[in-house]
Amino acid sequence: MSWLIFAIVFWLAAWALNSWLAKAHGAERWARFLIPALFGLTILILWEGLVLGLNISPVILPAPSQIAASFAASTDILREDFVQTILKGALSGYLIGCGAAVVVAVLIDRSPFLQRGLLPIGNFVAALPIVGIAPILVMWFGFDWQSKAAVVVVMVFFPVLVNMVAGLAATDALQRDLMATYSASYWQGLFKMRLPAAMPFLFNGLKIATTLALIGAIVAEFFGSPTMGMGFRISTAVGQLDLPLVWSEITVAALAGSGFYGLVALIEKLVTFWHPSQRART
For domain 71-278, which CATH number applies: 3.40.190.10, 1.10.260.40, 3.40.630.30, 1.10.3720.10? Predict the structure, then answer.
């Protein structure tokens, strides 16, 4: 009971501190980083205290200190899994899928036939469950990272395609008529007007695809992989009841996903600095 009272008091105190910082200094740049950091630190302290105080088994929920110890002892394994899953599987599939989506979006914009025929098929394929697609692609492309990249391509292609098609259609008739009065060709209008106008839409799709790429690469490894990779390691560690290692892999995936998303968001800010949504954040 004393642990429960401590947890409640600590949570209320941390909540009050964060609320005060958000109200008093929420608009300042340093507060945007300090407030989430304090909130995360509060969660970790509560987690550690409750696990130790309630004597919860590490098989059910390891404490953050146990996860940190496992992380430090398994850096070589975690690095190999990161390279196999994130760099080879997720990143390569992300680049191929997103690049292909942009090219196909331009083709669809040029062809009403493709717009009416391909987009409905795309919606159908996007609705297919990953647990149904992954085993098939693993059998087609083998057990190495190529099959995981293929799964990622399928997962990221259509969200980026839909956003890019919508972005290319975002310009209004007055803007298109203005380019026509300048005798601009289709490609001149595309590169000088429509592609810049489509950038906010494209980056929305790219940011969504960052999380889809990681999920696809990790889940695909559950259906066959060499003796490395995050999905492989999680499945084998669960079987060995090594939950601290499982949480270490989850930590690496979360950090990689956050960094990947942040990188795309940073590029978006540099590319679409002119957009009202970016000016409002400064």
Answer: 1.10.3720.10
